[in-house]
Amino acid sequence: MELLNKILYALPVYQSAAIAFLLLINGINNRSRARMLMGIFQFFCAVYFSFNFSYAIRNFDALLALYYLILPLILMFLPLFYLYLLAITTPGFRFRRSHFRHLIPAGIFLLANTPFLFAGNQDKLNYLSQGFSSSLHSGLVLYLIFVYVTGIFVILPIQLVYYFNKAIKLYRSHRSYIQDHYSYTENISLNWILALMASLVLFFLSNQMLYLFGYERNYFSPVIYNVIMLVITLFTGYYALSQKDLKSLEDEEKSDQALIAETLNLPSVSETPKSELSETGTGFIVPGSEMDESERAKSVPGIVTDLPVSSKYAGSPLSEQRKLMIIDRLDTLMTYDKIFTNEKLSVEDVANRLGTNTKYVSQVINERYGKNFYNYINTYRVEEAQKLLLSGGWEKYSMIGIALMVGFGSKSSFNSSFKRITGQTPSEFVKASG
Prior knowledge:
The chain is mainly α. It has helices spanning 2-30, 33-56, 60-89, 104-112, 115-118, 121-130, 139-181, 191-213, 220-242, 256-263, 293-299, 320-335, 347-354, 358-369, 373-390, 393-396, 399-406, 411-422, 426-433; strands at 277-279, 285-287. The chain is built from 19 helices and two strands.
């Protein structure tokens, strides 16, 4: 059993080190700050597990070398994990000076631990071998015990509550961002955040259990602890490697007149007198007519001329005429080009096709259709799937085939979107139709 425990303490060290190496190399090659942060997190895990392994095999030379860094390192786990979440949920994430304030507690306890370096080897060994059990500690060792207890049982729980709350806010913000900017959730989904937070809480709970129950008094506690550590580090490593960084969607700094001119591929409105504007069959204004804006708007089929302005967009420079023009071209992209069949379609892709920015596209979709981008695109996909199913497409293709044809990346996302929009699963829809 003792050999098994030693092996179990060694496995997390090697696994974390291997995952850290993969993440750091991958992060550097792909310029992914998120993966580099998780690589550092995994490396620190490997150092921490090395300390536990050294304690299990009674390698006091390694313990003496590592102890000074262990408490500060423990107090860096939650800040690093939070910064990773921040990086993976922030398009074009960059480090800022303000981020380093999260490392202040670790820095303070690194300084507070400095007397350990000046303690005698005997005091160090007594402290590391006997812990809190001995009553014959020197004043220096009592001070080190006080520092450790303060860090583990005071600062760490405060960090846990603080960063858990911060992570929940990130989760909600990320969910809203995804729905406003992407038509899919594969590899950028939201559920992994909750799973990782739960894993991290489990990590610290199991760590506290190790010290409360003591592995020397219970042969099963190290087994449970190390199995949990193996699962957590593998889980976080897998998701960190598979998770895609969000693309930066920063809008270019352009004036409203120049932006709309580019949107319509026209000269700036200020440069073209209204008396010289005409309407083509495509619904776009070109020089040569005296038709006014209200008449032109009414001539576009399916367009509501009085679009509501939500408080969210109260300060937007986008005029009613330009909203209608964007809607006209957007409907063309969906109805004729069927751009929604692109599995990885994002609001940035649509904005590029329209020649405008992402904020204006999101605003128009929200105000005109009362939907976010995710629901707007998937409504078109479901409607297209309904047409295929009603035309007998389910007899020619499998359900996954139809899902892929209309732009869904998986059968599960197809089924969930279809159920949410129609109130029926695809199979139920086919049965009800015929």
